[in-house]
Amino acid sequence: MNLLPVLLLAPLALSLPSPHLHRAQNHTFHLSNLTYSSTLLYSTPSHLAVSSATFSFAFSNPAAYPAQCIGHSSGQTNDAGFFAWPQIFTCTNEGAAVGHVTFAWDRYGGGVLSVKQTWECGGDTYLGTATTDVRLRCRTTFWQNPNFTWPDPGWPYSAADTTCDVLDLSVEPRVERLE
């Protein structure tokens, strides 16, 4: 076997970028269809019956795999109380991806969204982290039962529904190879 052609091509092969390193360095986190909504339902003027909020988005990273991200918050007496601290939520990977995506949204702390993703590429594991401000444009609709009487209240006493415009965001993560 003649090794001369292989030896002549070796310097060229060493000078080309690794497709795995290129994939790890060529990335953007895309957060699409980012939505927020909340509902507050009062059974009487002083009794909160149900309160919940949802923050969700579709996550994609060209260097890895997509995921669906959904966070829930409940038990608040007004809309401003939902997602008032950066609770960590785990996203659902699409397909049989190795790794995971997590996020935390601190609505009270200025709307800062933190996203982390781990993925494998070429036998290496990578961690991408990014933060961005989420500025929502929301509307709240209030309704109050005009036929509410005590002690025989009609159901419900009042409701408040908040919905926000859908956002699409892209953010450049900081990527590191894990040991």
Structural class: mainly beta
What is the beta-strand fraction? over 45%
Q: How many beta-strand segments?
A: 12
How many distinct domains?
A: 1
The helical percent reads 10-25%
DSSP helical segment count: 2
> Mind summarizing the main beta sheet?
7 strands, antiparallel
- Give the helices and strands as they follow along the chain: HHEEEEEEEEEEEE
Task: Identify the overall geometry.
Answer: elongated
Subcellular location: Secreted
Keywords: Disulfide bond, Secreted, Signal
Signal peptide: 1-15
Protein name: AA1-like domain-containing protein
Describe the structure in your own words:
Keywords: Disulfide bond, Secreted, Signal. Residues 42-164 form the AA1-like domain. By secondary structure, the chain is mainly beta. It has one domain. The protein is 11% helix and 52% strand. It contains two helices and twelve strands, in the order ααββββββββββββ. The protein has helices at residues 4-15, 19-25; strands at 29-44, 47-60, 67-74, 88-90, 92-93, 101-106, 112-121, 124-133, 138-144, 158-164, 167-171, 174-178. Strands 1, 2, 3, 5, 9, 10 and 11 form a seven-stranded antiparallel β-sheet that branches. A hairpin with a 5-residue loop joins β6 (101-106) and β7 (112-121). The longest helix has 12 residues, at 4-15. It is elongated. Residues 3-24 have low confidence and may be disordered.
